[in-house]
Amino acid sequence: MTTLLLKNVRPMAGEIRDVTIVDGLFADGPAPEGAAEIDGGGAILIPGLVEAHTHLDKSLLGLPWYRNEVGARLIDKITNERENKERLGIEPARQSERQAIQSVAKGSTHIRSHVDVDTHHGLKGIEGVMATRDRLKDLVTIELVAFPQSGMMIRPGTAELMDQAMALGCEVVGGLDPCGIDRDPKGHLDTIFGLAERYGRPVDIHLHERDALGAFSMELIIERTEALGMQGHVTVSHAFCLGQTDRTVAAGLTEALARAGVHIVTTAPAAVPVPAVRELISAGVAVGAGSDGIRDTWGPFGNADMLERAMFIALKNNFRRDDEVEMALSVCTTGGAAVMELEGYGLGTGDKADAVLIEGETIAEAVANRAPRRLVLKGGRVVAENGVCVVEAP
Amino acid sequence: MTTLLLKNVRPMAGEIRDVTIVDGLFADGPAPEGAAEIDGGGAILIPGLVEAHTHLDKSLLGLPWYRNEVGARLIDKITNERENKERLGIEPARQSERQAIQSVAKGSTHIRSHVDVDTHHGLKGIEGVMATRDRLKDLVTIELVAFPQSGMMIRPGTAELMDQAMALGCEVVGGLDPCGIDRDPKGHLDTIFGLAERYGRPVDIHLHERDALGAFSMELIIERTEALGMQGHVTVSHAFCLGQTDRTVAAGLTEALARAGVHIVTTAPAAVPVPAVRELISAGVAVGAGSDGIRDTWGPFGNADMLERAMFIALKNNFRRDDEVEMALSVCTTGGAAVMELEGYGLGTGDKADAVLIEGETIAEAVANRAPRRLVLKGGRVVAENGVCVVEAP
Questions:
Q1: How confident is the model over B261-298, as pLDDT tens digits?
Q2: Angle (CA) B353 B359 B363, round 5°
Q3: Chain B interface, best mutation among A245, A294, A301, A323, by max B CB count within 10 A
Q4: Distance between CA B204 and CA B182 in Å, rounded?
Q5: What are the tens digits of pLDDT across the range A43-95?
Q6: How far apart are CA B241 and CA B216, in angstroms?
Q7: Chain pair A-B, CB pairs under 8 angstroms
Q8: Going from the N-terminus, what domains does chain A have, and what CATH number goes with each?
Q9: Under an 8 A CB cutoff, do B316 and A270 touch?
Q10: B69 burial via Cβ count (<10 Å: 0-12, 13-18, 19+)
């Protein structure tokens, strides 16, 4: 059933009206004779939430509580995870299905997932998440980023596995701290941009490096984006260097990102400096958001709720006004859609009926309350109701 | 009913056992004949959550959505609130009762509330929150801080109202940014410490001032605390200056706070530098936490859930390990209790049976999940069950 009359909804918190969906697309005019009807009860209709940065392959959802005693450095978390994955029963297919179903319940219709590729586990993560991607394709769009979590230049054999992951059908080439982790920025970036060129795929790079170091890596990324004509197809995730105290440098980088069409994805972590969302959007940079890891060996928090992520973005950016909270939510909808280069995303006629009904008088109230999602549609099909996905998690 | 056998609970996530409460206090040995029994279902028993910094008089809970279009400066928010309070129907007695009941439902057994005192509204806020304090005294302990939100030295007549508020029975003398808002640090601090001396009451000062300015005000507060022998009875709320980048200055202040027995209360806001919880606790400073304003004209967020606040503290301090998350929760229990100078607080024999049953295998899981509280006890009396307070909000 992908033809539907959705009655009494308020698109983007506007006037109440009926919305017609024909063959999975938003349509003009009245619904066809005999179309199914759903009463939206005056809830707010927004396009599907976009989870633009997560790690479906490594959540501990549904497993016994993991007592975290991991060290403070990034490399401690990476090593601990790689070495304990099997012992803890982190089976990528099952765990990614669990998290993806939770995402659907919370209203996400699109997920970009980084998936670990390393010489210890090979392509097991990729194969597992691909199985979930295919199994859940009518519920949620899942895009895989081949992600060298343990480093690539520092672990011989990883680049070849990255190549195989792309050949298998990963949608995006991932990268990670070309200096901080991989110790060879030129080698790292030449390799992943080389793969991007070879497979005609976009790039999405985790960049935790701060201050001048992150700025240097970002410059190298921008240079390659422009040299290869990849404007619009490159994303920098985290980008903590944009939160540096030297605002002149941050402003210069922001301008360069806009010129090169490089996107930014933020998870708005409270503990570290982050890109300023308003400044990036004002400069014309597309900004998406994600949950990052959810209840994994890195940390206990996260629940795949992109309305909660909008709240975190608002809190981190000190957004209090309604228009500011609306901007935070837009990062989790249209911003993420731009990052993922989604076609037919939105509430316009002809757009895909990937949408969510959220409860509130206004968008800011819906973000503040985060009530269970009344309805989630994927291609006009009901995939979750009252906070529960139509498919049960394994 | 304040004599009770609480069966199958895990105090502080330890071994499962039965807990006896006699006449509202935790007791040793078996329950008296005929005592009522409640099955805790293996949930974790912790002492009652302590909401050590909020503003009961000004929440918009239960009122129509307030479209926030307020300016970015602190003074914009102060002025906007003072001038629109009546128009918006922010009636202190009703609004404080609404928020306090929500707090009880979420497991708070003690609340320290700052309450506005100004020449526009006089003592209306104080009288309203006092009415709630008295009405709900069997459900939750509410302590009032007379709080010169609009400034005191800059608004003649306010100091006299502060004096009247203390005479009426406020438990704590409040202060606010001696430099940043009140423009006269000596005048401001002499006045509020004078009131504290006169009424034999503790002091709790909002200090948003950053960097060197906040450090200067904090030094003045420490000097007065020591000069007046008020060690253990002075709290600095927010204390953003401790989050300054010059760690030497922050460490020096921390040492001085510990020496003077000055407490810190944090709300762990994501957007601004904050005191480092671990460093303060290590130095011997009592650290409590609070929700700050909840859904008010300052901002749309907040829900009075101190387990959520523990998560915010963890996120802000980059606490990921279980022992770190336990530290974050301790700020919302024993830390707040130290700030409020509560007697008989805890789970020991003879302590008041103010306690909460939270769901989880471990404390970290309970903080990460934040499921509705299974049971909340105040003096051994059930005041909330399964997330619902026994009293309905007005």
A1: 999 999 999 999 999 999 999 999 999 999 999 999 99
A2: 85
A3: A301
A4: 16
A5: 999 999 999 999 999 999 999 999 999 998 999 999 999 999 999 999 999 99
A6: 9
A7: 86
A8: 4-46+347-384 (2.30.40.10), 49-339 (3.20.20.140)
A9: yes
A10: exposed
